[in-house]
């Protein structure tokens, strides 16, 4: 991949048609909601317990709100071109974070997509499993699953990545997650794959002539 600067005519952001019954989006740090992140975590925790029809008791809502705050502090995106979702299960289960980002395309398509999914990751415990993956919205891409060592912890991470290039827009799209809880990724795998089919690219005109919405390509 080249490090040369790219002159942008548009700003990209991921567009994801996700199921709010299974996924919760973290508010970005540049969003006004971040200024009252505690209210956001308490509200989401209360709604989530209510949706499951369970009695949270005295500690259920504060516990889930604290969990959501820790995920927000660790993973809430700062850049405009990144979004973060949490796969939610029962109110007492640990969520799994999932990232989506889009950047201007650079370099050779095949080499870039293989780099994005970590196809030749030197930290992989064993050769990653790399497969072609096609969606109606983004076309042919790659999917890779790998186990990798951490430099600062003994646990091995399980990582799942999807990458595509939108040649028409000149954009590279990446969807990924990683965790040291392999059972979590296995549990979420079918939901992540379903979500991968719903990812597309929203294009924001940097100099709009009027108050228009982003052009989201089907």
Features:
218 residues, alpha+beta, Protein Transport Mog1p, Chain A, 2 domains, 7-stranded antiparallel β-sheet, 3-stranded antiparallel β-sheet, 4 helices, 25% helix, globular, disordered N terminus
SSE topology:
Layout: E1 10-16, E2 23-25, H1 37-51, H2 60-75, E3 82-87, E4 96-104, H3 109-117, E5 129-135, E6 139-148, E7 157-166, E8 171-179, H4 182-196, E9 199-205, E10 215-216
Antiparallel strand pairs: 1-9, 2-3, 3-4, 4-8, 5-6, 6-7, 7-8, 9-10
Helix pairs in contact: 1-2
Structure overview:
This protein has helices at 37-51, 60-75, 109-117, 182-196, and strands spanning 10-16, 23-25, 82-87, 96-104, 129-135, 139-148, 157-166, 171-179, 199-205, 215-216. By secondary structure, it is α+β, with helices and mostly antiparallel strands. The chain folds into two domains: 10-26 and 77-206, 3-Layer(aba) Sandwich (Protein Transport Mog1p, Chain A), CATH 3.40.1000.10; 27-76, no CATH class. Strand 7 and strand 8 form a beta hairpin. The longest helix is centred in the first third of the chain and has 16 residues, at 60-75. The protein is globular and about 55 Å long.
CATH topology of the largest domain: Protein Transport Mog1p, Chain A
Distance between the termini: 28 Å
- Domain count: the total is 2
Number of DSSP helical runs:
4
Low-confidence stretches: 1-9
User: What fraction of residues sit in β-strands?
Assistant: 25-35%
Shape: globular
The first-level CATH class of the largest domain is given as Alpha Beta
| Largest sheet, strands/sense/barrel | 7 strands, antiparallel
Helix content: 25-40%
| Element pattern in H and E | EEHHEEHEEEEHEE
